[in-house]
Design a protein that fits this description.
Helix content is 13%, strand content 56%.
Length: 177
């Protein structure tokens, strides 16, 4: 009788509360790896092409996107001579390793060495095609004007670009120049 009572108490004491199940499920979706203050260098044939600085990088196992960069990122695009040609900053980015596309979001700014600046909410970098693009609203500022549009495509060094659906142009130079 005593063994039946012990057996009964043992099985009654094992239970899963909804809170413990929720905690377990949440842990499964947590990052499998977290890196702080990280720097990633991308080279081709020994030549530096891209440098990425991120405050936090998280890698996930069975979740897309698998790599998420948060709390501020900086991406430097380099020329063949290892000179910085453009810089992209954002609050967050997600890497699609399979398609080699990065999605930068929140306070996205792309600047070139000749002082052009693009501001938008979302920007995609297609590493395979060496293109940067968005369909979101953009503000492009040059030394002469600010152009507002809905859509943007450029090479990574921001020297050859096009703006779609231009909705406004503001001349930044005075008539006396």
């Amino acid at each position: 009788m005593r063994s039946i009572l012990c057996f009964f108490i043992f099985f009654c004491s094992c239970s899963n509360t909804p809170e413990s199940i929720k905690d377990f499920i949440t842990l499964e979706k947590s990052a499998v790896e977290t890196i702080t203050e990280a720097e990633i260098l991308h080279t081709e044939n020994g030549i530096l092409k891209v440098k990425i600085n991120s405050n936090i990088i998280e890698r996930f196992h069975d979740k897309e996107p698998q790599i998420v960069l948060t709390n501020g990122i900086e991406i430097f695009f380099y020329s063949e001579k290892a000179e910085i040609k453009s810089t992209l900053t954002a609050d967050r980015a997600e890497l699609d390793k399979k398609n080699k596309i990065m999605t930068a979001s929140k306070n996205v700014v792309l600047t070139s060495v000749d002082n052009k600046k693009l501001e938008t909410s979302v920007l995609f970098w297609d590493e395979k095609r060496n293109k940067i693009y968005t369909n979101s609203q953009v503000f492009v500022t040059t030394n002469k004007e600010q152009i507002i549009g809905d859509g943007f495509t450029s090479n990574t060094d921001f020297t050859n670009y096009s703006i779609s659906n231009i909705t406004g142009v503001i001349n930044l130079q005075s008539d006396t120049e």
